[in-house]
Write a structure and sequence with these properties.
Two copies of one chain form a homodimer. The first copy, chain A, is of the alpha+beta class. Chain A is built from three helices and six strands. Chain A has a single domain, classed as Arc Repressor Mutant, subunit A (Orthogonal Bundle), CATH 1.10.10. In chain A, the strands form two sheets. The first copy, chain A, has a three-stranded antiparallel sheet. In chain A, strands 5-4-6 form a three-stranded mixed sheet, with no helix packed on it. The complex binds manganese (II) ion (2 copies) and zinc ion (2 copies). The site of one manganese (II) ion has 6 residues of chain A, from strand 2 and strand 4. The structure holds a DNA duplex.
Chain lengths: 119, 119
DNA sequence: AATATTTCTGCAACTCAGTTGCAAAGTTTA
DNA sequence: TAAACTTTGCAACTGAGTTGCAGAAATATT
C-alpha cells in the first residue's frame, strides 16, 4: 500500500487530499490510506498543508527536507479550481516575532487564482 | 446578540473560536453565535484564521482594514497553549508567484511557542 | 393601536473529514 | 511450523460546522 500511495504522490504536481488519494485507488480502504499518509508524515516524506478547504492536503517533501523551519515554503491555493501547489522556489523569509516567541513551523497559504483559472 | 459578541471580541487579545465564544455567553445558542460571527466576517469586522486546530479562529479587524491583500498579516499559533495571535505589526511581504498566478488573500500561520510557554 | 412584514433566535438534525477499536489477514522471526 | 508482529478493512464514532424551520422579537405599514 505504501508503495502504491508513494507512487501516486510522485505523479502529482499538486498537493493531494486523503479523499482524492482514496478515489485514485479504489481497491483500498480510507483508513488504510489515512494511516499510510500519517506514517509518511511522521517519517517526513510528506508535509501537510491546511489550505482552508476542510481537507488537509499532503505533498511530498523535497529530497533535502528535514521538515524544519528552514524547509518551509509558501503554498498557493486556487479559489476557483481548489488546487493547492507548493511554491518551493523560495523559502519563507525570517519574520520578527514578539519578544520570546519562538517559531518552529508554519502553514503559509496564499489564495487567489492559478494560471489556469486566471484568464 | 451582535453587541454582546462584539464586546467579547473587543476584550480579547487572542483570536477566538466559535466554541470559546459560545462558552463565554452561556445564555445563547451556538447557531446564533455562529451566524453572528459569519455576519461580522461578511461585513469585514472580523477576519478568520485557520490555525491548524480544527476550530476556525476569529479576530477583530483593525480600523483601517478592508480585508484586502494589503491588510494581510501573519498569525502566530502556540503549539502548547493553543493561543492564536494576530501579528499586526508587519504586513506580509510581496511574494513572487508563478507566472499568471494572482494573489487575493492569504492565511499565514507561524507555529511555535509563545512567550508564556517558552520558558 | 392593530396588523402585516421582516429579522433574529433556539432547537434539532444533518454533513463530512478525520479518527479509532477491533478482529482478520498477511508478514517476519525464531 | 509456530509465535510475534504488522497491516488492513470494516464499522462506528467524534466534533466542528452548517442548515431548515417554526416561534419570538423587532420594525414597518395601515
Ligand atoms: Mn509544500
Ligand atoms: Mn489577524
Ligand atoms: Zn485554479
Ligand atoms: Zn503558549
Amino acid at each position: 500500500m505504501r508503495i502504491i500511495v508513494l507512487q501516486y504522490l510522485m505523479e502529482q504536481i499538486k498537493a493531494v487530499s486523503l479523499r482524492s488519494t482514496e478515489d485514485a485507488m479504489e481497491m483500498s480502504d480510507k483508513s488504510t490510506i489515512y494511516r499510510t499518509l500519517k506514517t509518511f508524515e511522521k517519517n517526513k516524506l510528506v508535509h501537510t498543508i491546511d489550505d482552508g478547504t476542510k481537507q488537509l492536503k499532503y505533498a511530498l517533501c523535497l529530497e533535502s527536507c528535514k521538515c524544519e523551519a528552514i524547509d518551509l515554503h509558501y503554498h498557493f491555493h486556487c479559489s476557483s479550481c481548489q488546487s493547492t501547489y507548493c511554491l518551493t522556489n523560495h523559502n519563507i523569509p525570517k519574520i520578527d516575532l514578539p519578544k520570546n516567541f519562538q517559531m518552529h513551523q508554519a502553514n503559509m497559504v496564499i489564495k487567489g487564482l492559478c494560471a489556469e483559472c486566471h484568464k
